Write a sequence for this structure.
């Protein structure tokens, strides 16, 4: 609808308000919103199917121009599940974790950081890049350990807080998990794994890269030679990979989103890793499939009656697998 393009007006403001209320938006989600705006603006009914992608893009561009002076930007990324392009509102100067403090308590934000550490450190190793947590694993993190309580108290006086500070009850942790899914920060899969949502990956990209990857100025040459960045980018689209495939050679850093695989190797004209030339197996996964395709996990599902992961029994199966992997990693390090 070309007649809606041009000077920033009330229809643009209405669209921006709708975007702010949602935090994220896809073209399909925007169509009924813009249809309502166009109907009011034109004084006649506009159907969602009449809203073009060009209309949507023009309103996103106008909104970006309007909010850039306030250190906000609308950025986009493809869903790792189905290539749907998702647009998210990002504060370009403030730490997203700090922003969460406006809607969550300090203890809840500390719990979120423990969840991120679990996703990108505990369950993200050279052996298994799961980058997700089960409900049981997440709830177990409800209590802060001593070092976290010391940090919370502050290094100025060296005093520790009581064991209750920065910790949540198990019920409180379950509520925060539900809130993070409802607010669009986390997704919960059918198998019961929590992962970062597309919105979180867009907003937290800088935070994740600077927190979990070693910067060049922070490492010496020996560390650089052994460097293993925990956050890796897709060789095809250059966005963070938490769901996809990896080179079967553990030392190789090549990762590709599942949704990018076909087009990537079509361009490569070879089903070999573009860096180390190892044949690409298609069976080395990043994300929850790094866990759910293991023999131990599948054996646990059979013991629990098969079907979709359920309840505490299935969670225990995942935990048992984690313990086995931790033991194996320790042996490899020795």
């Amino acid at each position: 609808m070309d007649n809606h393009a041009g000077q920033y007006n009330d229809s643009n403001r209405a669209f921006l308000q709708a975007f702010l209320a949602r935090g994220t938006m896809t073209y399909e989600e925007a169509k009924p919103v813009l249809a309502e705006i166009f109907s009011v603006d034109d004084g006649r009914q506009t159907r969602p199917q009449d809203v073009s992608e060009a209309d949507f893009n023009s309103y996103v561009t106008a909104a970006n121009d309007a909010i850039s002076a306030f250190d906000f930007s609308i950025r986009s990324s493809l869903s790792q599940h189905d290539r749907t392009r998702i647009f998210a509102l990002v504060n370009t100067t403030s730490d997203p974790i700090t922003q969460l403090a406006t809607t969550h308590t300090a203890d809840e934000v500390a719990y979120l950081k423990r969840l991120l550490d679990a996703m990108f450190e505990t369950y993200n190793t050279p052996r298994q890049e799961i980058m997700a947590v089960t409900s049981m694993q997440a709830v177990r993190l409800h209590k802060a350990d001593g070092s976290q309580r010391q940090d919370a108290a502050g290094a100025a006086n060296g005093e520790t807080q009581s064991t209750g500070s920065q910790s949540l009850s198990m019920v409180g942790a379950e509520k925060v998990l539900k809130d993070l899914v409802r607010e669009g920060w986390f997704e919960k899969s059918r198998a019961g794994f929590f992962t970062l949502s597309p919105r979180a990956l867009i907003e937290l990209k800088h935070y994740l890269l600077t927190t979990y990857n070693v910067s060049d100025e922070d490492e010496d040459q020996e560390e650089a030679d052994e460097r293993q960045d925990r956050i890796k980018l897709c060789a095809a689209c250059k966005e963070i990979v938490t769901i996809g495939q990896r080179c079967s050679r553990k030392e190789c850093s090549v990762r590709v989103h599942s949704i990018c695989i076909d087009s990537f190797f079509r361009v490569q004209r070879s089903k070999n890793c573009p860096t180390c030339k190892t044949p690409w197996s298609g069976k080395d996964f990043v994300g929850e499939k790094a866990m759910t395709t293991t023999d131990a996990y599948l054996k646990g599902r059979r013991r629990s009656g098969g079907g979709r992961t359920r309840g505490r029994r299935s969670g225990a199966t995942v935990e048992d697998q984690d313990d086995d992997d931790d033991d194996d990693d320790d042996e490899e390090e020795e």
